[in-house]
Specification:
Blueprint: H1 11-17, H2 19-28, H3 31-48, H4 51-54, H5 56-60, H6 67-76, H7 81-88, E1 89-91, E2 97-99, H8 121-125, H9 133-136, H10 138-145, H11 149-161
Antiparallel strand pairs: 1-2
Helix pairs in contact: 2-10, 3-11, 6-7
């Protein structure tokens, strides 16, 4: 698949149109076969997509901030943990700490992350295309495919290779 995020501006519509196909694939997939392909497909995707041109994950969604994330980031920012929480975080419906506002307060106008070296685990792992989360949490994968070109790329390649 030849994929250029900048040129293929309609990938989001294609991903939306393919949700049933993705859902069916994720449900029926040979898990061992898929997991074996994920590292290579994810590497390909990251070579084809410039996240700094996109940053939709940071502009529209929040990672979960776990206790180790809060400790690490507040230390880097030279803030008390309680001050960091009060300043930047809320508790969502599932009881997780998430950013109070979007875009993420740590996202710069150049789409660089102001806490990149200390970013939350969810940010480090996103979009989960090189791990079993892709299969274990199909609803998350489907949602991610609608705003993340990496997820779209990997799902499209998996469908080609089935």
């Amino acid at each position: 698949m030849d994929f250029d995020f900048n040129m293929e501006s309609n990938w989001g519509k294609k991903a939306a149109d393919r949700q049933k196909d993705y859902k069916r694939f994720l449900h029926r997939a040979n898990k061992k076969h898929v997991l074996k392909q994920l590292p290579e497909l994810t590497d390909e995707a990251f070579k084809s997509v410039d996240c700094l041109q996109c940053a939709q994950c940071c502009k529209n969604y929040s990672p979960r901030f776990k206790t180790p994330d809060i400790k690490r980031i507040s230390k880097q920012l030279k803030m008390r943990e309680s001050e960091f929480i009060d300043t930047y975080l809320n508790v969502d419906l599932e009881g997780d700490f998430v950013v109070k506002s979007t875009p993420c307060p740590f996202l710069g106008s150049d789409n660089y992350c102001g806490i990149y070296d200390d970013r939350p685990s969810d940010c480090r792992r996103f979009p989960y295309t090189d791990e079993d989360v892709l299969l274990k949490r199909p609803q998350l994968t489907l949602k991610n495919s609608t705003f993340c070109p990496i997820t779209y790329y990997v799902l499209e390649r998996l469908l080609e290779n089935k």
